[in-house]
Amino acid sequence: MMTDHETRATTLTDADARRLALEAIATLVYVKKTAADQVLRRVGVPEDLIRRFLTERDPATGEKRSKRDAGALVLEELARTGGDHAVIRNIVALAADWSAFHLAQNEYQARAVVQKARELRGVLAAADARELAEAEARREAAAQQRQREQSEMIKRQSALLLAQLDQAASSGEHQQRGYLLEDLLNRTFDLYGVPVLRAFRRNGGGEQIDAAFELDGWHYIVECRWRTRLADIRQLDGLAGQVARSGRQTMGMFLSVEGWSEHVVPLLKQNPNKAIFLMEGFDLRAVLDQRIDLRRLLKAKISALNLEAEPYLPMMEIS
To answer: What is the pLDDT of residue 6?
Structure first.
């Protein structure tokens, strides 16, 4: 954060820059129309304000305003919309590099303005650098605060979901556990910001999909199982058929809380169309217990399947 001294110094610097900008408008170019072309247009003043600069009259005298008064009017109008800061900086930079002294009525006054602009340009650059650093620090602090709040929210929600998982594990209602598993999975994906599509039917209602999610441009059809008996390959054949009937950028994830039989992994490896990876209850528990990030878990399993033809990567082997 800037100190009070730095804040006051920045305020004074801005006031000095505004005064110098008015001096530049009034002094560098004698002819008003030429001043509009050589100064105002070059620093980004809008055309409607340039017309007012050229034509505005003093309500008291009816005479056209001087370059100084008209310039003050232009800066006041820009200040209403917050556009004065950039224009004033541009005028200071223009004046610091000014060499067309033949356009001035008084060359010595014009040279004095140029000298002041050269001195002020460095001061402004330092002030702007401080403001930029301060703004960046505020953005970083805000981002860190949002990250802390997000992490805390994930931690709280994960604890609630984990408690539901533990409660369901002691239930003998197998069908209800299956429905709960789908809901837990969907809510976990929502928690980590992974787009998920809840259970739906397709192909005229003839095909039931437990869930689906999207990750890095690919779609994944999900099959969920929570039964006391280990899942066998026949259950995965159903998921394989759903994947095969989907678009080319679709894969499958088979979630079985109780795992699967010893034949499942070898048989999946024999399938030339390796499009299904496995996830077990321990994986889901590890995510909810904050031992691993969901996206990291999914990407590691998908990479193992795509690069190593390995349909099952244990969570403990993810580095």
So the answer is: 44
Determine, yes or no, domain membership for 153.
no
Q: Residue written as tokens 């340039």?
A: 50
Enumerate residues 6+ apart whose C-beta is below 8 A from 141. none
Q: What separation in angstroms does the CA of 203 have from each of 200, 209, 256? A: 11, 11, 25
Q: Is 208 left (phi over 0), alpha (psi -120 to 50) or beta?
A: beta
Low-confidence ranges of the chain (pLDDT < 50): 1-10
- Cα–Cα distance measured from residue 279 to residue 228, given in angstroms and rounded to the nearest whole number: 16
Same domain for 90 and 180, yes or no, is no
Establish if 151 belongs to a structural domain: no
Predicted local confidence at residue 7, as pLDDT: 45
CA dist 251 → 184, 274, 276, 287 (Å): 21, 9, 6, 21
* Burial (CB count <10 Å: 0-12, 13-18, 19+), residue 172: exposed
User: What pLDDT shows up at residue 10?
Assistant: 46
Minimal CA–CA distance to 121: which of 98, 97, 92, 94? 92
What residue numbers bound the domain in which 238 lies?
A: 171-317
pLDDT reported for residue 123: 86
For the chain, how big is the Rg over CA atoms in Å?
Answer: 35
Q: What is the pTM of this model?
A: 0.62
DSSP 8: H
**Any idea what the Cα angle at residue 181 is, between residues 253 and 239, rounded to 5°?**
30
